[in-house]
Write a structure and sequence with these properties.
Layout lengths: L7 E2 L1 H8 L3 H10 L8 E2 L4 E4 H11 L7 H10 L4 H13 L7 E2 L9 H12 L3 H18 L9 H14 L7 E6 L6 H10 L5 E8 L2 H12 L11 E7 L13 E6 L29 H11 L1 E11 L10 H10 L2 E6 L13 E6 L11 E6 L4 E2 L3 E2 L1 H12 L18 E6 L24 H23 L16 E3 H6 L3 E5 L17 E5 L1 H6 L5 E4 H6 L3 E2 L5 E4 L6 E4 L6 E2 L3 E6 L6 H8 L2 H6 L1 E2 L6 E2 L5 E3 L3 H40 L9 H5 L1
Parallel strand pairs: 4-7, 5-6, 5-8, 6-7, 8-9, 10-12, 18-23
Antiparallel strand pairs: 1-3, 2-3, 9-11, 10-11, 12-15, 13-14, 16-27, 17-24, 18-19, 20-23, 21-22, 21-24, 25-26
Protein name: N-6 DNA methylase
Organism: Nocardia stercoris
GO molecular function, one term: DNA binding
Length: 689
């Protein structure tokens, strides 16, 4: 095959084909002269011919038996064009027969010859279950590749939205349901609705609208496969259309029992002028700067009486001055049931604590005078180093909102809850600002009492004692008399070349492959430089097999982890479970018969070492790990130094724990005194006077 026609693959993709890590592929390149030469890319990220790589792996007996889907993605990616690749992936599902759902509208498009041949090759080689798995795999890779252009709602959030809408839907008890997503993207929210509702109705209709025809085609393809073989195609109808829901809604005549939507944020050109007299604005004309409130009213206008809508909105929609008249109208009409403040990282943009707005339609008796609204602050569901506890968050939100309308859910133990909430009369929020931000209204915290304060004081005293013990352990360290002992030094690079140290470089995992929440027993935490700088704990996790397939560097016990960025430079010994390392993180694996890990980490983390090995070759100051210096000394002496470095780390840890305990004590004292829940104990002089 001519090089211009060859399908390119990267080192990471070769690693997936072989079922090994990326480091193994790099070793093959160095050790085997027969390894195929690059056909493109760069020195740092070379590309190779898929055909040549497959032939070489097969000849070496290294071709992974389970790598069939891995061989597909480079061929789809080689189609080049984002739209062409997306439509080809959609066609792999749409070409399958029988389908798992009835399509009420089907995208019509033609593919170039090469793309169609690839689709035919793919669909001809998979069975029905394989079609669903293959499509999900290809869609995931496509979303990973175009993550900056296409955002999707994480499955955990989508499931929460669908479950909340199902609980609050007060429509008749008909055995048919219609769910609408007016900005459906690739169909993630509608797919969650299938999981929540399928099997409970004679007919479930999934309706969607999407401006991008490629995303609309992918949504139809995704939903056409159904949710499981137990749901008959005649029980599931799919009607996704291409169009602009706000400007010219192709689903204008539809009325849904549930509306789920994660609309685009901050769009100024949403049709403010041309839609000025639109009948959907029954709560007021949305200002140009408030497109989110246009989506809110659009969702309400498409609901059956008694229907429920759940939307993802930016926090500014709850407080901006321009939208207060519409918020006031929503409260007066009893249309807004709840606002849930999610923890940062729940969905893109991940740095923003997004809100869920829960709305209902068709209750004439619900007015501001007799209607209450539930405000929930779920920031506590984000646990440092472990991500978002979606299981607890979902159960608490559903319990607080109640199974039906205003019926309260089961009580929650506030001392154990990750959410804080308050139920307020809507009329109490009708002030000048009409600010619906939960954090401004929910109680600051649990009432302080003497027992709680006593526990906090006891914890602080215990930490202080631990710090004293750690400090005493360092009393064996003293200044060397005289000018000190001059020792020769070597570098990490020289130790690697000598074969007593292996150096592994961290890689960037695909954004959509990193999960938040609580990892399972066989999942691998993912640590990045931002994690090191914020909490020092991994901010997400990835299934172990995916980490292996992606060629990620996974640490082992006793590895020395080094941060290769000047502003966060550090080194430590890996003591816990295996961790996948992100960019600018390095794992050093020492030969225990030549190097002591604690000695190595202690020497490497010296600030002067980091400054000496620093480089400014790029826009950010980095540390050249290979240039870091290590003193030369016998193994026994290394171990003695290593024991001291271990005690230094212990002292540092206890110092941090004491600081956090002190912050808790200060916060409790301030909150309790300011809130009138604590007071100064009367002194003897006070009683005498």
């Amino acid at each position: 095959m001519h090089q211009s026609e060859a399908v390119p693959v990267t080192l990471a993709e070769i690693a997936r084909l072989a079922g090994v890590g990326r480091a193994a592929v790099s070793n093959w390149r160095r050790r085997h002269d027969s390894f195929p030469a690059p056909i493109g890319g760069t020195d740092v990220s070379p590309q190779f011919s898929l055909t040549e790589i497959e032939e070489w792996l097969r000849g070496q007996g290294k071709l992974h038996e389970g790598g069939g889907r891995e061989r597909l993605w480079p061929q789809f990616d080689a189609l080049g064009d984002r739209s062409e690749t997306g439509l080809a992936i959609a066609k792999t599902a749409l070409s399958h027969d029988p389908r798992g759902a009835t399509l009420l509208s089907e995208p019509k498009f033609d593919l170039p010859r090469a793309a169609q041949q690839l689709v035919d090759q793919t669909t001809g080689a998979t069975a029905r279950v394989g079609v669903r798995e293959t499509f999900d795999f290809l869609l995931g890779r496509w979303l990973d590749t175009h993550v900056r252009q296409v955002s999707s709602t994480p499955r955990e959030l989508a499931m929460l939205m669908a479950e909340v809408a199902q609980r609050l839907c007060m429509c008749d008890d008909s055995t048919s349901r219609t769910v609408l997503d007016p900005a459906c993207g690739t169909g993630g929210l509608l797919s969650a609705a299938v999981e929540v509702l399928a099997g409970g109705q004679d007919l479930l209709t999934l309706a969607g609208v999407e401006k991008d025809p490629v995303l609309a085609a992918l949504a139809v393809a995704r939903l056409s496969l159904g949710v499981s073989d137990e749901v008959e195609p005649q029980q599931l109808a799919v009607d996704v259309r291409t169009g602009d829901s706000l400007r010219a809604d192709p689903q204008a005549e539809l009325r849904a029992h549930m509306v789920l939507c994660n609309p685009p944020f901050n769009e100024r050109d949403w049709g403010h002028e041309e839609l000025a007299t639109d009948p959907r604005w029954s709560y007021g004309l949305p200002p140009r700067t408030e497109p989110e409130l246009a989506w809110v009213q659009h969702a309400l206008s498409r609901l059956h009486p008694g229907g429920a809508a759940v939307l993802v909105l930016p926090p500014s929609a709850a407080a901006r001055k321009a939208g207060r008249s519409i918020r006031r109208a929503l409260l007066r009409a009893g249309a807004l049931r709840a606002v849930v403040a999610l923890p940062p990282g729940s969905a893109a943009p991940h740095s923003v604590a997004l809100h869920l707005w829960v709305l209902g339609a068709g209750h004439a008796s619900r007015t501001a005078a007799n209607q209450s609204i539930c405000l929930i602050d779920a920031a506590g569901a984000a646990i440092p180093g472990r991500g978002i506890d979606w299981t607890t968050l979902s159960s608490e939100v559903k319990a607080l909102l109640g199974p039906r309308d205003d019926v309260p859910g089961p009580p929650i133990d506030e001392s154990e809850a990750c959410t804080r909430s308050v139920v307020m009369s809507s009329i109490d929020l009708l002030d000048e600002e009409v600010d619906l931000t939960p954090a401004r209204h929910v109680p600051v915290g649990l009432p302080a009492d003497s027992q709680a304060l006593g526990d906090i004081r006891q914890q602080f005293s215990a930490r202080l004692a631990d710090l004293h013990r750690a400090y005493d352990a360092l009393s064996v360290v003293d200044r060397v008399p005289g000018p000190g002992t001059h020792r020769g030094t070597t570098t990490v690079g020289e130790l690697v070349r000598a074969g007593v140290l292996d150096l592994y470089t961290g890689h960037l995992p695909a954004e959509t492959s990193v999960r938040t929440g609580f990892p399972g027993a066989d999942d691998v935490p993912v640590m990045t430089v931002p994690d090191v700088m914020s909490s020092g704990r991994p901010g997400g996790w990835i299934p172990r097999q995916e980490a292996i397939e992606a060629g990620l560097t996974v640490s082992q016990p006793d590895d020395v982890i080094v941060v290769g960025v000047t502003r966060a430079f550090s080194a430590w010994v890996e003591l816990g479970s295996a961790t996948a390392l992100g960019p600018q993180l390095y794992a050093l694996r020492a030969d225990p018969e030549a190097l002591d890990s604690w000695f190595l980490a202690g020497c490497l983390r010296a600030p002067a070492n980091g400054r000496q090995a620093g480089t400014h070759a790029s826009s950010s100051a980095r540390v050249d790990v290979r240039k870091l210096q290590v003193p030369q000394m016998p193994l026994d002496e290394q171990r003695r130094h290593g024991d001291i470095f271990r005690q230094i780390v212990r002292f540092e840890r206890e110092l941090g724990e004491l600081g956090r305990a002190g912050e808790t004590l200060v916060r409790e004292l301030n909150d309790g005194l300011a809130g009138g829940r604590l007071a100064r104990t009367p002194l003897e002089d006070d009683r005498v006077g």
